[in-house]
Amino acid sequence: MSELDRAAEAIDAGELVVYPTETVYGLGADALEPDAVERVFAAKGRDRSKPLSFAVPSVPSALQHVRATDRERQFMATFLPGPVTVLCRRRKSVPDELTAGRDRVGVRVPDQPLALRLCERAGTPITATSANVSGRASARQVADLDLEIREAAAVVLDDGETDGGTESTVVDVSSGTIHRRGAMADEIETWLETH
Predict the structure, then answer these.
(1) What Cα–Cα distance (Å) separates residue 157 from each residue in 6, 59, 142, 183?
(2) Of 79, 132, 150, 152, which residue has the fewest beta carbons closer than 10 angstroms?
């Protein structure tokens, strides 16, 4: 069985997986399963009031779990896949645990072949959060992973060093707000001003 198959099976079983993205290594679990989401928060030592995003293999697969306006769809068509997290109104399938009870959820379509294959193979949205203990540096290679994350993960997908060290830009297209400036922030700002 390939590492990718093992990772998909681990996600199906509610376990945690470390996977590469085009920015930093991410910590993945079944984003629609409250217990799995809880494991992500526990492994990271993350404040439960800070929501997590989810990763999917394509915009159409994201639209099964969010309600996107025409403008949000235009934005996603322009910037996804890419190092961008788009906040959209969630559907009922997305649990409160993921969004900290908020009505919007972050959507990520990573521009990284192995991450996309994992998303496809998992068959469910997976959590998209950096694979590090909260407050510590993000990992750009497996050797940089915090021991706590390594021990919590059932599978670590190693694809060498990631391209970017910058986290994704988090944007709420509906309000035209950039919540976190990261990769491509300037291009995103220009798009928001002109669309």
Answers:
(1) 10, 23, 8, 23
(2) 150
